[in-house]
Amino acid sequence: MTEKTTSDLVLEQLKQGLALPGDLYTSPTLFAEEVSAIFGRQWLYAGHVSEIPHAGDYLTVTSGDESCIVARDADGEIHGLLNVCRHRGARLVDCGTGSTRRFVCPYHQWAYSHDGSLAGAPRMPDSFDKSRWPLKKVHTSVWQGLVFVNFSSEEEVESLPELMADAAELMNPFGVEDARIAHTEVYEVDANWKLVWENAQECYHCNANHPEFIRTFDVREMAQPTAGEAPLWYSEDRRSQSARFPLKPGAVSLTMSGRPASAKPMGEFADGREPYTAAAHLKPGFAFVFSPDYGITFVDTPVSPDRTHVKVQWLVHRDAVEGVDYAVDNLIRVWDQTNRQDWELCRSVQEGVKSHGFEPGPLSLDETSVAGFYYAYARMMSAAGL
């Protein structure tokens, strides 16, 4: 008898309209499989182009045992480079951002140009051919000023613009490529990455837990994704999803007051375009929400079966000046409070699913996107034979 795969189990739960069994959030074996099969093969968000504006600027992306350098060269091109020296395998740079003339291995001083080519290797024989030993490339794609990497070892990977095609029309008016990072928060969440993602897919919990968020967010409209302003768009496998984010009448931005947090409108909204707020997800770990005056990005990185690293960045127009056009405290207030409330809820669920008495309950009418996540998760695991 053929052993049931994780993807088979998830699809069976979906057919019954049920949540997932507890061991899918606690198993170290499954966690290791997910990091390799999902996060090792899908597009992962690296950062915004404004974080690496000049030649030699770089940022890093880490997923499981993999680390990537995203660097800009003298011609303005962006390269994804495996953060592994071709000599003995040492990491070239630590996690974070920086700027350097060359990437020099701290171990034996092999030096690499920003495109990954080997520029210097001390005390190698005359027969040594530097051109044979560049840094290995990591698939890189820039979409709307957002940089993504894919650690897949396959020579070709799917097109990111094609995967995000439905979101493009919705997001084009925001001019995301002309934004810059105004603030960054890093949260350590004591919960499995899937619980963190599920939480972000529904607002069934919002009325009881997010007083700041629902001052301007219209929960009732969210419960009717095919009605009102616009439908919910998603790719066939549900990895990509986008929609307008409904705000209450009179609100033009997702802030405490519903008024703009920044005086510098973004993109076409500076020219008087009718305001709206929009959101998009790219599974397994990226989401963003933009209002006419600011945007926010979320990146979920699995750390262990019961711990997730969440990096959140707030973006404003590149010409917006802190203290003149916006105040950071006001800019981040709604989302920072909502995030902290969500992380506590996720921690509570993580504790609960460890109980031997936990039995997955039925999904509500407000959790259709949670079901969509289950489907996308099953498809990604199935692609790896899991």
Descriptive keywords:
iron ion binding, 23% helix, metal-binding, single chain, Rieske Iron-sulfur Protein, seven-stranded antiparallel beta sheet, four-stranded antiparallel beta sheet, 17 strands, alpha+beta, Naphthalene 1,2-dioxygenase Alpha Subunit, Chain A, domain 1, 386 residues, globular, 2 domains, oxidoreductase activity, acting on paired donors, with incorporation or reduction of molecular oxygen
Could you provide a short overview of the structure?
With 386 residues, the protein is an alpha+beta fold. It has 9 helices and 17 strands. Helix content is 23%, strand content 24%.
Can you walk me through this structure?
It contains nine helices and 17 strands. About 1% of the residues have low confidence. The strands form four sheets. It has a seven-stranded antiparallel sheet, sandwiched between helices. Strands 4-3-2-5 form a four-stranded antiparallel sheet, with no helix packed on it. The chain has a three-stranded antiparallel sheet with strand order 1-10-9, with no helix packed on it. A hairpin with a 5-residue loop joins strand 12 and strand 13. It has 386 residues and is α+β, with helices and mostly antiparallel strands. The longest helix has 26 residues. It has two domains: 107 residues, 3-layer Sandwich (Rieske Iron-sulfur Protein), CATH 2.102.10; 220 residues, Naphthalene 1,2-dioxygenase Alpha Subunit, Chain A, domain 1, CATH 3.90.380.10. Helices cover 23% and strands 24% of the residues.
